[in-house]
Amino acid sequence: MAEHYSSFQRSSWRWVAQRVTAVFLIGALAFHFVLLHFINHAAEISFAGTQARMDEIGYLSLMVTFLVTAAFHGLNGVYNALVNQGLEGTQKRVVGLVLVLAGVLLVGQGTYVALSMNGFI
Amino acid sequence: MQEHDVIVVGAGGAGLRAAIEAHEHGADVALVTKLHPVRSHTGAAEGGINAALHSEDSWDLHAYDTMKGSDYLGDAPAVDAFAQEAPDEVIQLEHWGMPFSREDDGTVSQRPFGGLSHPRTTYAGAETGHHLLHTMYEQVVKRGIEVYDEWYVTNLAVTDEANPEERACHGAVAYEIATGEVEGFYGHDGVILATGGLGQAFDHTTNAIANTGDGQAMAFRAGSPMEDMEFVQFHPTTLPSTGVLISEGVRGEGGILYNEAEERFMFEHGYANNDGELASRDVVSRAELTQINEGRGIEDEYVHLDMRHLGEDRILNRLENILHLAEDFEGVDGLDKPMPVKPGQHYQMGGIEVDEYGQACIDGLYAVGECACYSLHGANRLGGNALPELMVFGARAGRHAAGEVDEKAKVKTGPSAKSEDGSIGSPVDLGGVSESEAVATDGGALATPQDVLEAAVEAERDRVETLIERDGINHADVREKVQLTMTENVNVFREEENLKQALRDIREAREMYQNVAVRDPSRTYNTDLIHTIETRNILDCAEAITAGALAREEFRGAHWRKQHQERKDDEWLKHTMYAWNNGNPDLYYKPVILEGDEETYEPKERSY
Amino acid sequence: MSSTYDRGTVENFGRWREFSAGMWAWVLHKFTGWILIGYLFTHIAVLSTATGVDQAMVEANEDIYTNTLQDLEELVIVRFLEIGLLSVAVFHILNGIRLLMVDLGVGLESQDKSFYGSLALTAVIAVASIPTFLGGVF
Amino acid sequence: MSTQVTEKSDEKEEAESTEQSPGERRREEKAKRQQEKEAETPELIDEADETVELKIFRFDPEVPDKEEPRFDSFTVPYFEGMTVLDGLIYSRDNYDSSLTFRHSCRQAVCGSDALLINGTQRLACKTQMVDLEWPIRVEPLPHQDVVKDLVVDMEHFYEQMNAVEPYFDPDELPEEDREEQKQRPENREKIKLSTRCIWCGACMSSCNVAAGDNEYLGPAAINKAYRFAMDEREGGDKKEDRLRILEQEHGVWRCQTQFSCTEVCPKDIPLTEHIQELKREAVKSNLKFW
Ligand SMILES: Cc1cc2nc3c(=O)[nH]c(=O)nc-3n(C[C@H](O)[C@H](O)[C@H](O)COP(=O)(O)OP(=O)(O)OC[C@H]3O[C@@H](n4cnc5c(N)ncnc54)[C@H](O)[C@@H]3O)c2cc1C
Ligand code: HEM
Ligand code: SF4
Ligand code: F3S
Ligand code: FES
């Protein structure tokens, strides 16, 4: 077990980022829920309503940031959880890659969706 | 076979210190220990470690206090060396990071302790021993010293010339507890025994269950005499069910002892009209036992130590850990009820006879720590003097074994130091019961050290096989018999008839031991086997204690004899020596050395 | 010591009964976190119906996006799932706050109480949200 | 050479099934006694013939009979103040001398006898039977290989302890021969709790992360590192080194603040707090370089 030292990695930035995104997400998620379930009831959602909201550049960028932070926070969380359970070597690298890929796809698709709602695309 | 320069047996404070020192001087050291080092009983020491650190204090005051405390049975060369080197050792510990308690200016704190003329007990909270043990183990890890933990040393590889002083120790035989493997450890430059106390010879003790006097018994059977074994310290306040120590601090703060009739017997029965509960350990222990024996004990077993009147605040402030101890180990809430206490065996002043470098009379054999007797504590050890002893003499022996010491020792060892024959007046035979117990090895006939070791290994393999293969009784019955008779007859009170009874019982136990067998057939972690071998060692230690107690007809230090109520300096200013002599023990005396470096110590009345 | 007994995963997992507050919090936080990230993927997938909609349909509120969402919302099961999602999110937030406090070294002594608190508050919020979520389905 | 429980204990076991367990009864009584503290003579319960049943895990790779792990029942006489260790010793000395467990000091300083008692990691010597539900179930520490009966292989634990360079290593020492290094009392106070660790392994055994990731340093080793990293006598350079060790993959970041380590530690060391503090320290020291 002496090769602890060899698997050297200063992973504190991920730890910090997980907390920082969490702080942001507290607000963002609450806002999202309240807005789309309590103010505007989900059942009454329509594209027009969505479009109206998305037209505002502030709301759009908030939603995109929300998406990016949530994706990072969630996928990093999943990665940590798996690694904590003792994922090693190749397996670990593969899982990391898959998660990064999934994240990129998620954010890409999400942004594309948001932009279509906004009418840019 | 494992080969090293120095084999250290035991990894408590003494063994670790010896190993570090030998290693510092270039020796290749192996620590062989039946417990992982941090499990050693040094970790239980609470009070502190004495050293003359202050500029107003000086080593000769410490030496004087120690000599006086020993009731003038200390040897001056050992006492002087001890007091001179203790400060260096304590500072050394500090430099190794020991978390000593601190004064506001950042220097280490020292507190007053019984029998000391200056506050020189350095401490780390109420767990000084724990910190000392861990600090030194850390240094062992740092140096990469090889540790064979959970290896039980069963015997020494010693040649068997007729005269023990001509014998040589070439190593030790150890049993790997996890696997049942018996192996030889060849020590080019010698073997240092540091196996600790022998509290398990008594049924009520503050010592650990692993403190079974293995080192004393192994050295004894190899021909190195045991010295001053009758001096056993009993602590007056231990919990009755477990023997866990309740610190003197409770009485220091004003705790009161009561008997069943709720009498404050220390005063009301006139045991100590001035100091009461704060009289010295032996006085209080004897008072408690008198009460119990006269039927005024609670449940005929213990007395009460009451601290409730001190008030919750004061107790929580100063004695909090006592509350935990009483609650955890006796199930008693000290804030709510008086705590049951009774005297318990605490420390063995005597041990393997060694000089002030820790050398036994056998060439290449050293002993340090509680298992050794360099005649430092004499007839009575002062509180806080055992931990510095581990350090000072551990270092000295380590240095000597590594070949760094040229001076000749002033303390003489072995049969040639004899000044006078002794007699015990034992009602039964002492020593070995059967022929097979007589000889350590066939060394005299064997050519090389390796042969001696191999022969010893073979003998131990046989012993293990026999114990496991045969049918017989459980060692626990033998152990219990010895422990009960020791506590009953060789306790605080010693009367001739009782001592003789104890010798008879020990003899019977020895005979029973001929039929012990290990029930557990497994080679994996066979503690049944280990305990069975330990019980054999307990027998030898118990006998040596009792024989010495019967021989010494005076009252000195911790040794009290009913018919001999005074210290007899004319006749008894000498050490009791007990030698195995191939199974036929012999008791003799050797002189006390009172001429020190600076002055000659004059025996004075020991009063405080 | 040729062989030792490794009690293995099954027995180790059997120890859940002996879990203490902090461990339950850990398990639940993981669990809720995974649900949330899983939901995020689903969510984006559903929202993807918003791409390439026909502006004419939008005017009539008949585009795929609007239809999909409103069809989904008509399902009672979806409404219940939403309550579940809210509970999951609320617990994750509350326990997340608890964990952030722990990271900052605040209130470590009452970590178990704050966990129970998070659970209770989650329950309260979930119950309180029922009218909103179930409004109009039945 | 039977390794079976004596029949005597089996018989007793059967006779032992009352609706209310003795443990419950005694705990109730204890509570009652506490209420009646002021009352003149608290009623003394006759404990003379009370017995406790211990259900003890048995396994020995070498003894055919014990190759399959099983539980044996031992019924031992109860006395006031009896600890679980007392019960184990009694069972071994009177019923089955092959019952194997580590123990030495009997006073919670040697750390040999951390066991899983009624589902929680505790020191057998420090656990009063009255405080438990009866019968008492005793198992070896989870997440470690069992060598035999209650003895587990501690090697891995020791390796983790050694992996944090567990020794004092000051940047410099005082010049004078007999001069100590200065340490402020507050600084000693800060490391005090962390220095109490007795290497019992209870914390490590209770941590689920450590169970999953064998290389995780674990709470005890991190706490050991804390003891040095926070000791002002060592100096800043060494502290950097220490943080670097703690920050590696299997170091402090692994901790998921499960708190079970803190809960089981028999020396009441606030382990989670120490780990969290080190995480913050590590972040701080990294920020310095950015
Ligand atoms: C409760 C208590 C409180 C005390 N308080 C104080 C105090 O405040 N101040 C003070 O100065 N002194 C105190 N003492 C006394 C002091 O602690 C002891 O005398 C001292 O610690 C003994 O140390 P040691 O190294 O000789 O032995 P130990 O620490 O007992 O170590 C013995 C070592 O030998 C090993 N060993 C034994 N037999 C074998 C074998 N056959 N094979 C292999 N290895 C073996 C063991 O594994 C262990 O590592 C106290 C003692 C007790 C019991
Ligand atoms: C809104 C407020 C949120 C807060 C306060 C929050 C808080 C946290 C914290 C502190 C952690 C770290 C746990 C640890 O590593 O010790 C975490 C983990 C995690 N979070 Fe969140 N989170 C929030 C929202 C979300 C969202 C929206 C998602 C999903 C998209 C999410 C998914 C996760 C996941 C998957 C983990 C990993 C859990 C694990 O398996 O250990 N969180 N969360
Ligand atoms: S931190 Fe506590 S539980 Fe862990 S090994 Fe040390 S004393 Fe035992
Ligand atoms: S139990 Fe494990 S996860 Fe952290 S708080 Fe303790 S180390
Ligand atoms: S026997 Fe030493 S800690 Fe329990």
Automatic annotation (TrEMBL), chain A:
The residues forming the signal peptide are none
Kindly list the GO CC terms recorded for this protein.
membrane
Keyword vocabulary terms for this entry:
Heme, Iron, Membrane, Metal-binding, Transmembrane, Transmembrane helix
This entry's Gene Ontology molecular function terms read: metal ion binding
Q: Where are the transmembrane segments?
A: 20-39, 59-82, 94-115
Q: Which Pfam families match?
A: Sdh_cyt (PF01127)
User: Is Methyltransferase among this UniProt entry's keywords?
Assistant: no
Q: Where in the cell is it found?
A: Membrane
**Protein name per the record:** Succinate dehydrogenase
Q: What is the organism of origin for this protein? A: Halovenus rubra
TrEMBL record, chain B:
Please give the Gene Ontology molecular function terms for this protein: succinate dehydrogenase (quinone) activity
InterPro entries, per this entry? FAD-dep_OxRdtase_2_FAD-bd (IPR003953), FAD/NAD-bd_sf (IPR036188), FRD_SDH_FAD_BS (IPR003952), Fum_R/Succ_DH_flav-like_C_sf (IPR037099), Fum_Rdtase/Succ_DH_flav-like_C (IPR015939), SdhA/FrdA/AprA (IPR030664), Succ_DH/fumarate_Rdtase_cat_sf (IPR027477)
How does the record say this protein sits in the membrane? Peripheral membrane protein
Top-level taxon in the UniProt lineage: Archaea
| GO cellular component annotations of the record | membrane
One Pfam family recorded for the sequence: Succ_DH_flav_C
Task: Tell me where in this chain the FAD-dependent oxidoreductase 2 FAD-binding domain is found.
Answer: 5-387
Entry EC no(s):
1.3.5.1
- Is Ribosomal protein tagged as a keyword? no
The family classification in the record reads:
Belongs to the FAD-dependent oxidoreductase 2 family. FRD/SDH subfamily.
Q: What is this protein called?
A: succinate dehydrogenase
Which organism was this protein described from? Halovenus rubra
TrEMBL record, chain C:
Subcellular location(s): the record lists: Membrane
| Location (main, coarse) | membrane
Q: Transmembrane ranges?
A: 21-41, 76-94, 115-134
The entry's keywords: Heme, Iron, Membrane, Metal-binding, Transmembrane, Transmembrane helix
Pfam families reported for this sequence: Sdh_cyt (PF01127)
Coiled-coil residue spans: none
| Domain of life per record | Archaea
* SUPFAM superfamilies (alphabetical): Fumarate reductase respiratory complex transmembrane subunits
Q: Name one GO molecular function term.
A: metal ion binding
**Keyword Metal-binding belongs to the record:** yes
Q: Which Gene3D superfamilies match?
A: Fumarate reductase/succinate dehydrogenase, transmembrane subunit
Q: InterPro entries of this UniProt entry?
A: SdhC_prok (IPR039023), SQR/QFR_C/D (IPR034804), Succ_DH_cytb556 (IPR014314), SuccDH_FuR_B_TM-su (IPR000701)
Q: What's any one GO cellular component for it? A: membrane
Record's keyword annotation contains Transit peptide: no
According to UniProt, the name of this protein is Succinate dehydrogenase, cytochrome b556 subunit
Q: Which organism is it from?
A: Halovenus rubra
Q: Which gene specifies this protein's sequence? A: sdhC
From TrEMBL, chain D:
Under the heading PROSITE patterns, the entry gives:
4FE4S_FER_2 (PS51379)
Concerning InterPro entries, the annotation shows: 2Fe-2S_ferredoxin-like_sf, 4Fe4S_Fe-S-bd, Beta-grasp_dom_sf, Helical_ferredxn, SDH/FRD_Iron-Sulfur, Succ_DH/fum_Rdtase_Fe-S, Succ_DH/fum_Rdtase_N
Q: Which residues form a coiled coil?
A: none
- Location of region: Disordered: 1-46, 168-187
Question: Which superkingdom does the taxonomy of this entry point to?
Answer: Archaea
Keyword annotations for this protein, in alphabetical order, are: 2Fe-2S, 4Fe-4S, Iron, Iron-sulfur, Metal-binding, Oxidoreductase
Which cofactors, if any, are listed as required? [3Fe-4S] cluster; [4Fe-4S] cluster; [2Fe-2S] cluster
One MF annotation (Gene Ontology) recorded for this entry: metal ion binding
Q: Which residues form the signal peptide?
A: none
* Any Pfam family hit: Fer2_3
Bias (Acidic residues) ranges: 168-178
Q: What is this protein called?
A: Succinate dehydrogenase/fumarate reductase iron-sulfur subunit
Organism of origin is Halovenus rubra
